[in-house]
């Protein structure tokens, strides 16, 4: 039996707004300190030793995931220009292989179909990520960008997890890897129309994408700095319009954006601002052609809290005409342009929706919503790479239905089923049920709660349960299907998702009511949902585990302090549990841009005091906590490993807990955890085994005592 790790206390003092805090574990921030690494490795050994009894269960869950997954598989091919593009997987190999085959002719709109394990005639392998990952413990593909003529491929790779990528270029007609190499890029790059120039983004010392560069293929000259964003609150992104007509630079903070356009045939020209940035105004742009005239479809929130869609001439973007007005009930989220249609993505009643808007010679028609005859579902555009397609590809899924791909004929409304993700074994969607409940929060707000289980799950409080939450950045937790989740449901678990404030399920106001000085609503909403599950006999507190990651890990740490009696276990993955320390230090990665989300405690004493009341690390108390598992990665640049490391050290110190508080660090990974599908399945099996063991402990104890 290994010894329980005890991090040494080394007092570190900080003072802000007259408040002095002594932090005994801040020294763990030094990743280069051998004692830090030794402590993390000791925690890993302790976690493995403490959970060694779960080894068989982990292997069983991994096998269940593997046996339900079609390992040699292929995506539905997407047509672009002269090719069908797709990716496929091969049994026993970790990563996808990206390929293409020629189209049969200009009228070929039927994607090729191939049996699992076979290859298509004429297949050309563009990139085999298994070869790219060879010899590396971690692998992430960033850029995968083809030139307009389909002959040049720019791709980028990260082999450490720190999200800094190396870009290379291959000429596909010859297979030659060119001498052009770009180091330290952010993911994402795009070509000029002639394929002569490659545009890419780099990050600053705080990992903020802030510069756009132009690289001339084959040139020995230095790359040209095209744009630099000095405001540390803003990220820079790069892309092409759906029409491929324009290069787009997008600049955005959490609440404000600005778009710049440049004709892709004029790559050395100057980018032009669509709307100059104004604090709090968020907008996106699509190029459309109406009656032969270049127009811009602009989705914005200027005077429309849930956004409205307007049309404006390309040469005068301020001369707008409203296409879809704003609404308190409908949150407009995206407008995607094609030659003959706009596709509007939005949500109503916490559910995603899609509508088509026909582009005619005299204007753009009203939205016509697509119907999905299900209570809980997610719909959205799929892979659409053609500007003027015969079909529009759409995707659909729910908690109980695997992802489904249709091609929609926008003229007739006919939907052609292209693929329903296979689930091997005896899976039958009819064996499961999903529900939507509305839970009254502490202040009277009604919070959506999604609930999934097998139809034979008892409703008497004895079922184990897992409740998941996030609640930040206006990110919505929409229904999704998960093969790994079946390993819970088939063991009698209830699975629930709390759509708490801070997310975007009920529009921009739902987000605003869960951020900055209203952040406590996120936590109390989640607690109300957890108590609802017990009150309605879906489960009981001694059988309920909570899970959340990143900003959702902050949620986990907060509810552990606020309502430890509501849960028997909490899994916090890459958790943002020391937010005050982080947000007070503008030199740390991504801090300044986060002030729009959390507030600025460095300069605002009210924000400082408010955050100090809820930050998990600083509010650990000598109470009986649920069992806690914290997961992190050493090379995470978004939520540094030091946050969960400090949190676990303090929990163990203050509460005296040993076996019930665990820290598990991936030593060669980033924010998304390990890479490779088999490695990811093993990681999830490890986590699910802990969740199952924790949620069923009281049942096992009752059985022993009966």
From TrEMBL:
Keywords: Hydrolase, Protease, Serine protease. It holds the Pfam family Peptidase_S9. This is S9 family peptidase. It comes from Aeromicrobium duanguangcaii. Residues 5-416 form the Peptidase S9A N-terminal domain. Belongs to the peptidase S9A family. Residues 480-693 form the Peptidase S9 prolyl oligopeptidase catalytic domain.
